[in-house]
Design goal:
mainly alpha; 2 domains; 6 helices; rod-shaped
Length: 136
C-alpha cells in the first residue's frame, strides 16, 4: 500500500514471462529457418542454370546483369533472362576464348551491342567472383 510494499512471487512471474519470451523467440527462429529453406529453392533451381549467386554483392551484380540483358532482349520471362545471363556469363568467364570471339558469341545471343553496353556486361561479369565454370 505504501512505497515500501513488496509483492511476493515476482521472481516466479518474471521467470515464467522470460520462458514465454524465449519460447516465442525460438519459434520465430524456426519459422525464419523454414522460410529461408523455402526461398533457397529459387528460380535458379527451377531453371537448372550453372551459376547461382552466393553472396549479397554478387547477387546484386547478377541482378544488374539480368537488368542489362532485359534491356537488350526486351520483356521476357524471368527464366529466359536467367538462362541468357547464364550463357553470357559462361562466355565472358571463359578464359580460353579471345576477346573478339567472346564479343561475337555474346552478340549472337543478345543481338548487336554498342561498345558501352558490351563493356558494361564485361565489367559486371568481372565483379562476379564466385563463378565456378562447369568443366566436364
Amino acid at each position: 500500500m505504501g512505497d515500501r510494499a513488496v509483492r511476493t512471487g515476482t521472481k516466479e512471474k518474471e521467470e515464467l514471462e522470460e520462458r514465454k519470451k524465449k519460447k516465442v523467440r525460438d519459434e520465430d527462429k524456426k519459422k525464419k529457418k523454414k522460410d529461408e529453406k523455402l526461398s533457397s529453392i529459387s528460380m535458379y533451381d527451377l531453371v537448372g542454370v550453372n551459376y547461382k549467386p552466393t553472396t549479397r554483392e554478387t547477387r546484386e551484380t547478377y541482378e544488374a546483369l539480368l537488368t542489362a540483358i532485359q534491356d537488350q532482349l526486351g520483356d521476357q520471362p524471368r527464366d529466359v533472362l536467367i538462362g541468357a545471363a547464364d550463357e553470357v556469363l559462361s562466355e565472358l568467364k571463359n578464359e580460353k576464348s579471345k576477346d573478339l570471339q567472346k564479343r561475337s558469341d555474346v552478340e549472337s545471343m543478345l543481338g548487336k551491342l554498342e561498345d558501352q553496353k558490351y563493356f558494361f556486361l564485361c565489367n559486371l561479369s568481372k565483379k562476379i567472383t564466385d563463378y565456378q565454370s562447369q568443366s566436364g
